[in-house]
Structure formats: structure tokens, C-alpha cells
């Protein structure tokens, strides 16, 4: 049998367990030109919260009664004359929260698991890594010697952003929740400093850690931290609006109060969506793979198990009770 997680209602605020329902059905048969894939891992992404809202976004919302959208990696069990994919191939794409699915292959890519384990292809070599790579370089336009501030610094995107900025010769300060995460960000990931937003006064801590101001702020969280960062930007600073996790469950979103700092400092604030760089993912994955092999880029996945534990695992994105890339293992061994 196939277990699938179905979106049952649109949450207001933080989703609850009954936002979804777990259903069982027969394992589907691939039609002519399709493959049957068994999902090994799914990617847990903050964006999933936005995909549940019935509002205009960069992709349509997940429809009610549809399988919950998720990035996946899995193995082709059966190919019904698919032109490119054969039994045993490992595919990453948008398989959704389900143990098995069929696809004509659109939006799915074959990966080589002799080069990196499966979980890396939904982490640093997948969507979060691509976001970091293009966000900090193409939108943040970092230059050697600049001061970079990154929120969500211990997370999937932020941890990679900060390390790329270090590789490129910047001074990098992270923002993360709690002393353990901050220790990890500095001692393991090699950031120059990290502000614990849960226990420190943001304004004082940023003044201490970025005495000359901030050239690039990579924003993963929005809210108070964005305001504090705005208060310390330098002339011609760039603010990359990658995400705003502090606002995703809010019914009334808090916009930046300190936005006039953009005017004073002739600064820019620009949104980014990783999908715009899809034709360059290969280039990014090759560079990131190289940095990983050279020991310059450290990446970590926090793996939980079982489709039944989807909700409990999903909530970790918002509680912060996880480190690095959050992954759920679906295959039962
Ligand atoms: N624009 C794009 O194309 C794109 C693509 C991928 C991701 N994103 C965005 O990038 C951001 C990071 O995604 P990710 O996958 O790397 O997630 P992540 O950082 O691995 O996980 C989310 C982290 O957010 C932090 N957090 C949760 N609630 C918070 C709050 N109220 N205030 C401050 N921090 C909070 C927690 O870390 P602490 O324990 O440190 O609080 C948590 O671990 C998200 O906003 C996501 O939507 C955007």
C-alpha cells in the first residue's frame, strides 16, 4: 500500500495535526512513458507553510484534497518505457509527501549517489543550497572585505550563505536561536560571530558585532531581526529578502518599520526566488560539491523517520528544534 499525506484544510496561524490527513491507497502503476518512484526522503521547507495559503504567490497553492507538496528524493522502481529514466535511477524533484508516486519525469532530475548521499541532494546540493548560492552572490552581490549578516544562520539556507560569504572573503555574522546554535555557527561553520536573538538585545548585539555596519543582510526570518539589521546598514547595502519565517504563521504580517534606512543609505532590498536560477543549478551544484570535498563547506541534515511523524517534524521548522537541513525519511526498512 501507498501512504499519502493529504491537505485537508487551510490553516489560519500555525497548522495543526488535522490540517492534513494520512490516507492509504494502492501503489500506482506507471502509464506508458512514466516511472514509478519510491520516495526515500522528503525535504521539510518553511515554504510549505506558504503553499497552504490560498493566495497569489510564485507557485499555485496546494489544492485541498491534494497530496501535500514537498521536495523529494527516491528510486525508480519501474519504468514503463520512459525515454530517460530506468529502474534503479535516483530522482530528485517534487514528489510530494507520499511513499510512492508515478511521474512522466517533468521537474525530476537524475542524481549520482556515488558522489553524495541522497539527503545532500535535497539539502546543500538541492533547493536550499541553490537558494544560498544564488541569493548571496547574485542578489547580495558580496565583495571581499564586506560585512555580511545572515539570519537563520544554523539552518539549511543560512548555514550555506554564511560559509559562501566566508569563502569569498567577507566578515560574517550570524543570527540564530540559543547558545548551542550560536556555538555551532561559529565553531563548526566558521562564522566570525553569532547573535543569539532569543537571549540578546538585537540592537546592542549588532552594534557590538558589526561596529562598522552591515554591507549585506541575508534575511531568512523578517520581523524584528530585519528591523534591527536595517538600523545598522551601511551606504549602498544590499538586503536579500529570501524568506520571513517569523511571519509565516502570523495572521497580520509585520512589515519593516525601519525601511527609511534604505533611503538614508541609498540601499536596496530585493526579493529572490530560487526557481529563477533553475538553468544554472548544475553549475552551482558542481561548485558546492567541490567546496564540500575541499572541506570549505560543511553541511548537515537532521533526519527524522516515518510519514506518520510528518506533523511533529514539520513543527520543528518553527520551534527551531533542529539543526541544518530538516529531512523526513519515508522509506521503511
Ligand atoms: N526565496 C527562496 O527561493 C527560498 C528558498 C528556500 C528557502 N527560503 C526561505 O529561507 C528561509 C530559511 O529556510 P530553510 O529551509 O533554511 O529553513 P531553516 O533555517 O533550516 O529552518 C527554519 C529556522 O528558522 C528559525 N526560526 C523559526 N522561527 C523563527 C522566528 N520566529 N524568528 C527567527 N527565526 C526563526 C529557526 O532557527 P532558530 O533556532 O535559529 O530560531 C529554524 O530552525 C525561510 O524563510 C524559507 O522560506 C526561500
Describe the protein.
The longest helix is centred in the middle third of the chain and has 13 residues. The chain has 333 residues and is an alpha/beta fold. It contains 9 helices and 15 strands. Helix 2 crosses helix 3 and helix 2 crosses helix 8. The strands form 3 sheets. Strands 3, 4, 5, 6, 7, 14 and 15 form a 7-stranded mixed β-sheet that branches. It starts with a strand and ends with a strand. It has 2 domains: 152 residues, Alpha-Beta Complex (Quinone Oxidoreductase, Chain A, domain 1); 149 residues, Rossmann fold (3-Layer(aba) Sandwich), CATH 3.40.50.720. The chain binds NADP nicotinamide-adenine-dinucleotide phosphate (NAP). NADP nicotinamide-adenine-dinucleotide phosphate binds next to helix 2, helix 3 and helix 9.
Please provide a brief summary of the model.
By secondary structure, this protein is α/β, with parallel strands linked by helices. Helices cover 25% and strands 25% of the residues.
Chain-wise SSE layout:
Elements: E1 2-7, E2 20-25, E3 35-43, H1 47-51, E4 72-79, E5 90-93, E6 100-103, E7 109-111, H2 127-139, E8 147-151, H3 156-167, E9 171-176, H4 179-188, E10 193-196, H5 202-209, E11 214-219, H6 223-230, E12 233-241, H7 260-264, E13 268-271, H8 281-293, E14 301-305, H9 310-319, E15 325-329
Parallel strand pairs: 8-9, 8-11, 9-10, 11-12, 12-13, 14-15
Antiparallel strand pairs: 1-2, 3-4, 3-6, 3-15, 4-5, 5-7
Helix pairs in contact: 2-3, 2-8
